[in-house]
Write a structure and sequence with these properties.
By secondary structure, the chain is mainly α. The chain has a single domain (67-268), classed as MetI-like (MetI-like fold). It has helices at residues 2-10, 16-38, 44-58, 62-65, 73-100, 109-124, 127-138, 142-166, 170-178, 183-217, 226-234, 238-268. The protein is globular. 31% of the residues are buried.
Length: 269
């Protein structure tokens, strides 16, 4: 028995060279990234601003935090949720058909190449750039945020949908082909019943991401809670900054818990 074990261990591939090369590459990348940190010069004024922000969190502006008007944190949070929800919904409506005509097990390869190039082009542009573009077209406000998140969502949702579609049980699709089913019938009866829970889980995950994106887009004027925060920072209103940060923390915390529970419910029943 020991001889067989020794024979098996002797045949095990030696990965010392592979690990050594990997470590060298990581060290080279780390050394080349060092100049990025050389520009970080924190002055006494920077420490003072950091302390003011921290103190603002512990002594927030209660009129802003608990206010129910258009400028209150509650209204801004609801606006951010609405922007993220509509952006996810519009992006999903466009991404679903785009995903099906980008899956290699559904349509011919030439069609797949064209649609995947389109998806890749959409994913290339950062969300802030899309936000600035839509602000120029539609003007600042929540609508620009919705359209930005919709376009950004198309790239990610399509990519995840395509991977899910291509991992399907091919036997079902072959059976439908044998019965002479059309493309629409294959999608309706062979694919959607298998993918419903996965699709919903992906959309919940994207909605969770869009909430954070909506906050960042507010910094450039695309609606949501980010715009009042940047105004408060520029005006050195630290108590208002603290109130907004508390609202953001509560929003992210609640959505994180709800989205995790919903994904677990969808995936495991």
């Amino acid at each position: 028995m020991s001889q067989k074990l020794e024979a098996v261990l002797s045949k095990e591939p030696r990965r010392g060279l592979q690990y050594g090369v990997t470590i060298i590459i990581l060290l080279i990348l780390l050394a080349s990234s060092a100049p990025v940190l050389s520009g970080a010069h924190i002055t006494s004024k920077g420490f003072e601003i950091g302390w003011n922000i921290l103190s603002g969190i512990f002594t927030p502006d209660t009129s802003l935090l608990f206010g129910l008007g258009d400028s209150g944190v509650a209204y801004l949070i609801l606006q951010t949720i609405a922007i993220a929800f509509l952006g996810t919904l519009v992006g999903a409506i466009i991404a679903v058909p785009l995903s099906f005509i980008s899956a290699t097990n559904i349509v011919p390869k030439p069609v797949v190449i064209v649609t995947r190039v389109i998806i890749m082009a959409i994913r290339t542009v950062p969300s802030l750039v899309y936000g600035l573009m839509f602000i120029r077209v539609t003007g600042p406000g929540p609508f620009a945020g919705v359209m930005t998140l919709a376009i950004v969502s198309i790239g990610m949702i399509s990519k995840l949908f395509i991977e899910t579609i291509e991992d399907l049980d091919s036997g079902i699709l072959e059976s439908l082909d044998a019965f002479g089913s059309t493309l629409f019938q294959k999608i309706r009866y062979g694919i959607l019943p298998q993918l419903g829970s996965d699709f919903i889980s992906i959309l919940v995950y994207r909605f969770d991401m869009n909430l954070r994106e909506a906050t960042i887009l507010g910094l450039v004027g695309a609606g949501g809670i980010g715009a009042p925060m940047i105004f408060a920072l520029n005006a050195y209103h630290w108590h208002q900054v603290g109130a907004i940060l508390i609202g953001l923390f509560i929003l992210v915390f609640v959505v994180e818990i709800l989205s995790d529970k919903l994904r677990q419910k969808i995936l495991h029943g």
